[in-house]
Amino acid sequence: MNFPENLKYTKDHEWVSVDGDVVTVGITEFAQKELGDIVYVEVETLDQTLDKDEVFGTVEAVKTVSDLFLPVSGEIIEFNDSLESEPEKVNSDPYGDGWMVKIKISDASQLDQLLDSNAYKVLVGA
User: Fold this and answer.
1) 121 in any annotated domain
2) Domain count of the fold of the chain
3) Deepest of 49, 66, 70, 112, by most Cβ within 10 A of its Cβ?
4) Which residues, 6 or more positions from 113, have their beta carbon under 8 angstroms from its beta carbon?
């Protein structure tokens, strides 16, 4: 399984890529394998400012629906529109074309609470 070292991770199996005060968020390879084939991604929080750990959307797989939790507080400034017609990108490229949202961070210190790739590997038993 792939755990890119340049990313941060949450205990809820989301990954975070940091670029200045904007972070890109998706679900990890581990999460997408656990969920199975992704059939729908819903994010109705575009342009909203949410607190860390609030639900910003859902991902629907063949066997279950799972909430998506915001890893840091901030405003959701972009949704990966391509997931509306091709949700399977979350399965085929979770760290690339399968990204879900971009957030303008309101409290950068929250990034320090995220896991690095080694800590995430321990969490999932890899």
Assistant:
1) no
2) 1
3) 70
4) none
